[in-house]
């Protein structure tokens, strides 16, 4: 899930290092959803190559089954810079869906309490916690370029091999399930390409496009966001006046921000189209868009600022109790530039030109343009699909501004051509991250899917 702002670190959790041993969570009484959980830190190879003895730490949190144990499920967060804390607020939801399964939530290599690309600057004890402070960027860059072999080991494939090791080592007996969201779906599919883990079922939430899909890769994110935003407005336009549609009103407003300095001075400094793009992520903010457009047309700004405040509050509060919440920007940039940006030659100027007339934008294309961090070479798994898959449910929203429904469908069609055990459900009007933002639909779909798996 893309963060609007850096998540606040509210307090520091005393953290003890262990090697493949479970320990009780030290402050469980302060955060109800992790009460009674345990964590493990274990060693894994930096590179899964014979003769390479370098290791990293991997962090896993375990939530024991609430009823008689019959197996385990692994929850794989998005990112690639997100730690497992992005899924902690949903633990009760998954415990209700899978009461007989132990729940495991790992931190990807490079995130959370697992080993980091910049160990000093992304440490919990650094000046801004795990987030990079302004004065830490320079030393982080220096570390990366002085340790290229280390940085280039932070690949999707190595992260998938980490998962393989963890699942085989810690799952125990019984059923084995896996859930991935957003980038987590890409990581799960890379794991399945390896063919080293036996799973009973997989749930892929907000499936990313195939890596070679040039329409929906990350460099096209603003075009994707704009397409979804227009589709959302058309739901209102089709029911109203054709001469004064919300789409046309927003076009005039966006144009006015560039020609009317007095009007623009009353708006936030951030590009208004980017703000509208961010509103698409949250259902509560998205439903305010028609009113905001009508208010801005009449020079009223309160609804805009109120919605921005809502968005900031959500992302500030979500998982804010955890000091390991901060996204790893170095990991995100390394993986994105190496595998998920199909137009690495694009400049920031070209990004601006391409998105000049869009009504809804994403900040991502500009952030990933002109990458200055190290990259690794793509391997044989890039752009491929697994030869075999467990029984799998793919679930996507029809108004997902990050993993577009058409990109998900294309990917599903390729997967289902080779694997008849794959099914696809689309949730009308849902955004990205169905488990979080459309929980009732998610529960219904997953319950029906699990019944079929077990029958």
TrEMBL record:
Keywords of the record: Hydrolase, Signal
InterPro entries, per the entry: AB_hydrolase_1 (IPR000073), AB_hydrolase_fold (IPR029058), AB_hydrolase_sf (IPR050266)
Record-level Gene Ontology MF annotations: hydrolase activity
Pfam families: Abhydrolase_1
GO cellular component terms, A-Z: membrane
Record's keyword annotation contains Hydrolase: yes
Regions that span the bilayer: none
Domain of life: Bacteria
Signal peptide coordinates: 1-20
AB hydrolase-1 domain span: 75-207
Name this polypeptide is given: Alpha/beta hydrolase fold
Native species: Maribacter dokdonensis
Lineage: Bacteria, Pseudomonadati, Bacteroidota, Flavobacteriia, Flavobacteriales
């Amino acid at each position: 899930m893309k963060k609007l702002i850096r998540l606040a670190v509210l307090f520091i959790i005393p953290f003890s290092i262990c090697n493949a041993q479970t320990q009780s969570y030290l402050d469980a009484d302060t955060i109800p959803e992790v009460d009674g959980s345990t964590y493990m830190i274990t060693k894994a190879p930096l590179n899964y190559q014979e003769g390479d003895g370098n290791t990293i730490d991997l962090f896993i949190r375990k939530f024991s089954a609430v009823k008689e144990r019959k197996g385990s499920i692994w929850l794989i967060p998005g990112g690639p810079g997100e730690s497992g804390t992005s899924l902690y607020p949903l633990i009760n939801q998954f415990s209700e869906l899978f009461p007989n399964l132990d729940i495991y939530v790992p931190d990807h290599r490079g995130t959370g309490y697992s080993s980091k690309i910049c160990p000093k600057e992304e440490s919990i004890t650094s000046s801004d916690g795990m987030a990079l402070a302004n004065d830490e960027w320079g030393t982080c860059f220096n570390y990366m370029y002085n340790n290229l072999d280390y940085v280039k080991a932070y690949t999707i494939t190595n992260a998938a091999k980490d998962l393989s090791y963890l699942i085989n080592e810690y799952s125990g007996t019984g059923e084995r399930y896996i859930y991935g969201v957003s980038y987590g779906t890409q990581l799960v599919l890379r794991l399945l390409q390896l063919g080293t883990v036996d799973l009973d079922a997989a749930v892929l939430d907000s499936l990313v496009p195939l890596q070679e899909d040039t329409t929906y890769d990350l460099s096209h994110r603003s075009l994707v966001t704009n397409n979804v935003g227009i589709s959302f407005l058309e739901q209102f336009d089709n029911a109203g006046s054709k001469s004064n549609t919300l789409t046309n009103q927003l076009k005039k407003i966006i144009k006015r921000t560039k020609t009317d300095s007095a009007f623009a001075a009353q708006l936030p400094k951030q590009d208004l189209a980017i703000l509208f793009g961010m509103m698409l992520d949250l259902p509560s903010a998205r439903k305010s868009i028609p009113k905001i457009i009508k208010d801005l047309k009449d020079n009223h700004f309160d609804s805009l600022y109120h919605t921005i405040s809502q968005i900031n509050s959500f992302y500030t509060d979500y998982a804010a109790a955890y000091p390991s919440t901060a996204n790893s920007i170095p990991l995100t940039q390394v993986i994105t530039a190496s595998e998920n940006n199909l137009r690495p030659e694009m400049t920031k100027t070209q990004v601006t030109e391409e998105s000049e007339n869009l009504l809804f934008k994403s900040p991502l294309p500009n952030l990933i343009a002109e990458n200055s961090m190290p990259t690794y070479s793509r391997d044989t798994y890039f752009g491929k699909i697994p030869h075999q898959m467990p029984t799998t449910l793919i679930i996507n929203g029809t108004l997902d501004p990050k993993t577009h429904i058409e990109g998900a469908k294309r990917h599903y069609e390729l997967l289902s051509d080779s694997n008849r055990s794959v099914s696809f459900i689309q949730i009308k009007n849902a955004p990205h991250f169905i488990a979080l933002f459309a929980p009732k639909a998610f529960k219904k779909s997953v319950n029906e899917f699990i019944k079929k798996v077990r029958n």
